[in-house]
Design brief:
Blueprint: H1 11-30, H2 32-70, H3 89-100, H4 102-108, H5 111-118, H6 127-142, H7 144-162, H8 175-178, H9 185-219, H10 228-247, H11 250-275, H12 278-294, H13 296-301, H14 311-338, H15 345-377, H16 382-385, H17 390-398, H18 404-435, H19 443-463, H20 466-475, H21 477-503, H22 518-525, H23 531-554, E1 561-565, E2 572-577, E3 585-595, H24 598-601, E4 613-621, H25 635-653, H26 659-662, H27 664-669
Antiparallel strand pairs: 1-2, 2-3, 3-4
Length: 670
């Protein structure tokens, strides 16, 4: 008897997402030019009119993470307080780096700095200044700002997943705002958006990357020509290995390939710096890093409003990059969250922002500055002349180094593995989104997503519709940027509650407890009071205590007044000692309403409480300090507590430096 295959797919996420994915794909295949035209119009409207919004949103992400890094919240763990990281530091960094930036470094390591260097928008600058600015803008686009975008999503997901024990899903990031409603349609919409964005981003990257791989294989003579048949073979091989890696799990396939690729990339980088203009490259890295730090704030906030001649460049590079990183953030964020359990928030932010950024800077300096130096001193402009053909530019660059074929083949291997690591982690993430982080998903679902990626990438590549899909991905970035701002708000709210929970001291009223009245204490602890109960406490315990204390003070020539308001809200009782030159001493107790959580009321093994609202007697003071609950105090303990506060008041009053707080009556009369 055949066992029926089960699925963990959630229809409310998967079905609408597939309808949208196939709908966009059909338009891009059958009407590529018209679809690209209309999508480009929308994209240009967004970029030209809302570019300032992209800039401000990314700026908020950067400074928000820097704030968390230096704040007390940085010590909070992404998981239980005693949790340990699942992966070694090297494995962790290798995986988050390979998923986030890997393939882009191979594609843009030479192409971007050389493009900035050759861009007519900076044509009036001297060659040396153009080379410096080319490095600066490349650092800007691949540095802390890019990783801050990934960091916001990754940190939010990791925090709410491992600290709040929620599913590893984007909807979980809204829990402090939506509570249990995250499991409804609102949560489905967020995950649908993430699923479509991830699918489109990986599909377009796979399609364009296959073109670069194909061009490289032709350049080194492995393939006779670059045509669709060979591209099909490349896609099949990439997706087969990616599916195999994804089905073997993060801790095996993805981890191994990420480590292998980072080692290969470092070897290639060492080769370039060793056989290139070594002294120039090392010096330009130091100078470029200083230039970036010096220009950090200017780069962060600039919108080129006063420089219309560079506006088009700004839209086509900076704004496009911000949109592209945002559109990729659901995918990269989910993946790095998956591998970051057990890290502290400070460790997470430091590693995510600093380590990949420094590696990117080294890579872009050694490849990009080698290219500009060669273009000036050896190639006589031959490299900048082919800057528009980014697929082939990297391999043209290798022609100026020894062992050209060897390093070209090594580069092809790195590109190939980068594609595999991007695809396999993407498959894993898409299955995670579509199942709301189900832990027992059958492997055929991973095969399904891998097959979908490969098939649609080939269809779009053959029909010329990849550009439309890329533009669609960029358009979706802006609404997701708004969602990411809500992530920040939700994260702050969650961290505040988290910190308050773990730093909450014992109740003030328990400081002097002994075992003498433990049964009476227990009865009070497991009882919840109505408004009349607390009013009775104020009348029969607090007021009586205040009156006895006032009589004792009167015997020592100190006049104290007891006031009460038990008929009108807010119900309170207070003892007041008036002064002419100092602020009055006031110790009061008022009836305060408190809301009891629904989940506590529904708990069977907890004290019974019928109503959502309960009431407690809360102190207040003349200097507006925060009060505390005194519901467990006896009459004698109330008197003792007032005396403690009065002794504090007298001690502070005798110190001249406290006049600013305790000389209020004099200032009010003046």
């Amino acid at each position: 008897m055949l066992k029926k295959n089960k699925t963990t797919f959630l229809p409310g996420i998967v079905i609408p997402s597939l309808i949208f994915i196939f709908g966009v794909t059909i338009l891009s295949v059958f009407f590529p030019n018209r679809t690209e035209y209309y999508l480009s119009v929308v994209k240009n409207i967004l970029f030209e009119n809302l570019n300032w919004l992209y800039v401000m949103v990314v700026t908020i992400f950067v400074f928000f993470l820097l704030f968390l890094f230096v704040s007390k919240y940085g010590n909070i763990k992404l998981g239980a307080n005693d949790s340990k990281p699942e992966f070694s530091f090297f494995s962790w960094v290798s995986m988050l780096f390979a998923a986030g930036m890997g393939i882009g470094l191979m594609y843009f390591g030479v192409a971007e700095p050389l493009s900035h260097y050759a861009d007519p928008a900076f044509g009036d600058n001297f060659p040396i200044q153009k080379a410096k600015d080319a490095q600066l803008y490349t650092f800007f686009h691949w540095g802390i700002h890019a990783w801050s975008i990934y960091g916001i999503v990754g940190l939010s997901l990791a925090y709410f997943t491992y600290r709040y024990r929620l599913p590893l899903s984007l909807r979980s990031c809204f829990y402090p705002i939506l509570k249990d409603r995250v499991n409804g349609r609102a949560g489905d919409l967020v995950d649908m958006f993430a699923l479509c964005s991830t699918f489109f981003g990986i599909t377009t990257t796979l399609g364009f990357g296959v073109m670069q791989l194909s061009a490289g294989l032709v350049h080194v003579g492995i393939l006779p020509e670059s045509n669709f048949t060979y591209q099909v073979i490349i896609v099949i091989v990439i997706m087969a290995i990616s599916i195999l890696s994804a089905t073997s799990g993060v801790s095996k396939g993805i981890k191994f390939l990420s480590q292998l690729n980072i080692v290969a990339a470092v070897l290639l980088m060492v080769f370039i710096v060793s056989f290139g203009p070594t002294v120039f490259l090392l010096g330009s890295f130091s100078e470029g890093l200083g230039y970036y730090i010096n220009e950090f704030f200017n780069l962060t906030f600039t919108t080129h409003t006063y420089e219309p001649e560079t506006k088009e460049w700004f839209f086509n590079w900076t704004i496009l990059y911000w949109a592209w990183w945002i559109s990729w953030s659901p995918y990269v964020g989910l993946f790095i969250a998956k591998i970051s359990k057990g890290r502290t928030i400070r460790e997470f932010i430091g590693a995510v922002l600093i380590i990949p950024t420094l590696f990117n800077f080294l890579w872009m300096t050694f490849f990009g500055n080698s290219a500009t130096w060669l273009d000036q001193n050896t190639a006589n402009g031959a490299l900048s002349a082919v800057v528009d053909n980014a697929d082939l530019l990297l391999f043209k660059f290798f022609e100026y180094f020894p062992l050209t074929n060897v390093i070209s083949i090594l580069a092809i291997f790195i590109i190939f593995i980068f594609f595999v690591t991007s695809a396999d982690s993407g498959i894993f993430v898409m299955n995670n989104i579509s199942t709301n982080n189900a832990t027992n998903s059958p492997k055929w679902q991973l095969v399904f997503w891998g097959g979908m990626l490969g098939l649609l990438a080939l269809v779009l590549l053959n029909a010329g519709g990849l550009q439309s899909l890329q533009t669609m991905t960029l358009i979706t970035a802006l609404p997701f940027a708004v969602i990411m701002l809500l992530f920040c708000y939700s994260l702050v709210k969650g961290l505040f509650i988290d910190n308050e929970y773990y730093t909450q001291p014992l109740s003030h009223s328990t400081n002097s407890w002994s075992g003498t009245y433990w049964r009476e204490r227990l009865d009070k602890i497991i009882s919840y009071h109505g408004k009349n109960d607390i009013n009775q406490f104020l009348s029969k315990t607090v007021k009586v205590a205040f009156e006895q204390l006032a009589e004792a003070l009167k015997g020592n020539s100190i006049i104290a007044e007891v006031k009460s308001s038990l008929e009108e809200s807010p119900h309170h009782v207070e003892i007041k000692i008036q002064h002419e030159n100092m602020a009055d001493f006031i110790y009061g107790v008022q009836n305060v309403e408190k809301t009891v959580s629904d989940y506590f009321r529904s708990e069977e093994n907890a004290p019974d409480i019928e109503h959502q609202r309960t009431y407690i007697p809360m102190t207040y003071f003349g200097d507006s300090r925060k009060g505390y609950d005194v519901q467990y105090f006896t009459k004698e303990e109330i008197i003792s507590d007032v005396l403690k506060q009065y002794e504090r008041y007298l001690s502070l009053s005798s110190d001249q430096k406290n006049e600013i707080f305790l000389g209020q009556n004099i200032r009010e009369e003046d």
